Amino acid sequence: MWGSQILLAVIGVSAGIVVAGGLFSFIIELGVVADFADRTHTADKILLYEDSVAFGGILGNLFFVFQIEIPYGFWLLPVFGLLAGIFVGCWAMALAEILNVFPVFIRRAKIVRYIPLFILSMAIGKGIGACLFFFQRW
């Protein structure tokens, strides 16, 4: 009985480590962290940034799995939501940039003149959608 439980725990932890390693490798490979370091002219600290991404993922999983309560978490939630939204948005844009989605679409649709409006529309739509989602919960 105990042997099967221990085996299941080892398999679960091993699978989690593999999936998390793959995800962090994907984030690093997309160049999100390197692009941030390049734009802020802090390329000498890129290893610190990569370690911070991994540490943040590990810490987030620990808080989620063990349901650790954060004091004054209600006030920190909007800050976390903003930072998580920025990160996910940058990740999506980096993936789209790697796949050359936007240049191909813009050339085919002949909409070069309206690019700033499209970007602004996407940002406003994402912001309104997030506000509706979070305010609906209250």
From TrEMBL:
Keyword field contains Transmembrane: yes
InterPro entries xrefs: SpoVAB (IPR020144)
Transmembrane portions of the chain: 6-34, 46-68, 74-102, 114-135
Keywords: Membrane, Transmembrane, Transmembrane helix
Residue ranges of coiled coil: none
Protein's recorded name: Stage V sporulation protein AB
